[in-house]
């Protein structure tokens, strides 16, 4: 019996590549939702209205303090008992998006608090609406310094997608386990999955560095 069967590895590669497309799609959609929700959570947490800031702060701390696995289990297995059913793919994507939205919210909050106080006073003196102040003055200054941190969370989210296999989402890790259970060979599929995550993570890290260089101040 071969230690590593290259013929078998080539045979299962198309199945893993097909599943990898779903993994990448979950990551991209989840991250897009996370950066939008995270910004909204950060703004809400900094609000002067207690009825808005306290629930936002509580939600952020609650989600950051509980495991992603429990959260996706709750969305997929618990919510249907209360009449809210979702497919495994929707529940998994929404779960990982909300989980990382709370981390990106703290990144955004750090960026917002780093904006000089004079800028906040200027938009107040000019009588800008909150939406206009954030869009034209505050966010351009707040987001630029935190882009590397956001990029790191993109990579972390990508590496956390195997957690979704626990709720039957057939991403690349679940596909590898399915192949292993059918063939009783786990070395090849798990090794290929590890190589896939390594290569994509390195590629994403390179993209993040390029974005950081392009957005750096002179």
Summarize the structure.
By secondary structure, the chain is mainly alpha-helical.
What attributes characterize this protein structure?
mainly alpha, 218 residues, single chain, Ectoine_EhuD, flat
Structure characterization notes:
- By secondary structure, the chain is an all-alpha fold.
- The model has no long low-confidence stretch (mean pLDDT 90).
- The protein has helices spanning 6-45, 50-64, 68-78, 88-114, 117-125, 130-160, 172-183, 187-215.
Low-confidence region ranges: none
Q: What fraction of residues sit in β-strands?
A: under 5%
User: Number of DSSP helices?
Assistant: 8
Q: Whole-number average pLDDT?
A: 90
What level of helicity do the residues show?
A: over 70%
Largest sheet: none
Order of helices and strands: HHHHHHHH
Count of DSSP strands: 0
Reconstruct the topology from this structure.
Blueprint: H1 6-45, H2 50-64, H3 68-78, H4 88-114, H5 117-125, H6 130-160, H7 172-183, H8 187-215
């Amino acid at each position: 019996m071969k230690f590593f069967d290259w013929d078998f590895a080539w045979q299962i590669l198309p199945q893993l590549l097909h599943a990898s497309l779903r993994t990448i799609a979950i990551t991209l959609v989840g991250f897009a939702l996370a950066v939008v929700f995270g910004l909204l959570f950060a703004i809400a947490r900094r609000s002067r209205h207690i009825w808005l800031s306290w629930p936002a702060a509580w939600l952020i701390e609650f989600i950051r303090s509980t495991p992603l696995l429990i959260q996706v289990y709750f969305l997929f297995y618990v919510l249907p008992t209360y009449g809210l059913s979702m497919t495994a793919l929707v529940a998994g994507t929404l779960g990982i998006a909300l989980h990382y939205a709370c981390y990106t919210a703290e990144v955004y909050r750090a960026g917002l608090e780093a904006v000089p106080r004079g800028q906040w006073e200027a938009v107040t003196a000019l009588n800008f609406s909150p939406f206009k102040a954030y869009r034209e003055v505050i966010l351009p200054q707040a987001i630029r310094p935190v882009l590397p941190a956001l990029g790191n969370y993109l990579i972390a989210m990508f590496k956390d997608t195997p957690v979704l296999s626990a709720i039957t989402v057939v991403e690349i890790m679940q596909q590898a386990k399915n192949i292993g259970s059918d063939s009783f060979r786990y070395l090849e599929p798990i090794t290929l999955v590890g190589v896939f995550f390594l290569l994509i993570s390195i590629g994403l890290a390179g993209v993040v560095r390029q974005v950081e260089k392009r957005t750096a101040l002179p």
